[in-house]
């Protein structure tokens, strides 16, 4: 590695360390305004480092909350296995090679799948008991809604993927004499 590449890498690491330090100061109930400003300035002046990506996204937070509910009392081992299962599902859905919109939908599909399975598990446990009609109806509706959300998320992902393959691509080709020719081709 060249000296300048090493200096850039060291600089980026220093900036990331500074980001985490400022983030801890700003991530309080009542942070000082100077800490918020310092965080904004650091994020704005280092856009290429995409420092904000180090913070867990809302989809991941929701996933974490569902996992907390599922593995309650079971420990971190179960939680880690479920995390790996979700990661594998995202890989199976080609998360790494998908567009930004598809990645959002894949996250939604896996979150809905997780929620559906949690609801199904709870529904099964409740239905084993002697329950009131009202409680049974509540759990049937809750399960139906979870199934519907999962199905809709899958349909949305499929629709976006199907539409993204249909978008025609227009290519301008320079012909002899400098004349432009527009050619429309189907997207891949």
What does this structure look like?
The protein is mainly α and 188 residues long. It folds into two domains: 3-54; 58-166, no CATH class. Helices cover 69% and strands 6% of the residues. It has helices at residues 3-26, 33-45, 58-70, 76-92, 100-127, 133-166, and strands at 169-174, 180-185. Strands 1-2 form a two-stranded antiparallel sheet. Strand 1 (169-174) and strand 2 form a beta hairpin. The longest helix is centred in the C-terminal third of the chain and has 34 residues, at 133-166. The two termini are 38 Å apart. The mean pLDDT is 86.
In short:
The protein is mainly alpha-helical.
Q: Biggest β-sheet: count, sense, barrel?
A: 2 strands, antiparallel
Structural class: mainly alpha
Radius of gyration: 24 Å
Shape call? flat
The number of distinct structural domains comes to 2
Helix content: 55-70%
Separation of termini?
38 Å
Average pLDDT level = 86
> Strand arrangement, largest sheet?
1-2
- SSE succession: HHHHHHEE
Strand content: 5-15%
What's the total number of strands? 2
């Amino acid at each position: 590695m060249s000296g300048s590449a090493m200096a850039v890498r060291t600089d980026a690491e220093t900036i990331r360390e500074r980001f985490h330090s400022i983030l801890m100061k700003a991530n309080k109930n009542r942070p000082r305004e100077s800490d918020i400003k310092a965080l904004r300035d650091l994020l704005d002046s280092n856009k290429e480092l995409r420092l904000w990506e180090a913070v867990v996204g809302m989809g991941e937070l929701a996933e974490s909350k569902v996992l907390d509910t599922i593995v309650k009392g079971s420990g971190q081992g179960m939680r880690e296995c479920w995390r790996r299962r979700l990661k594998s599902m995202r890989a199976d859905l080609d998360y790494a090679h998908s567009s930004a919109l598809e990645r959002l939908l894949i996250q939604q599909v896996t979150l809905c799948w997780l929620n559906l399975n949690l609801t199904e598990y709870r529904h099964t446990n409740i239905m084993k008991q002697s329950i009131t009609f009202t409680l049974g109806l509540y759990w049937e509706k809750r399960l139906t809604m979870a199934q519907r959300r999962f199905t809709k998320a899958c349909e949305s992902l499929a629709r976006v993927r199907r539409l993204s393959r249909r978008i025609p691509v227009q290519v301008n080709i320079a012909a002899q004499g400098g004349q432009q020719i527009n050619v429309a081709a189907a997207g891949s």
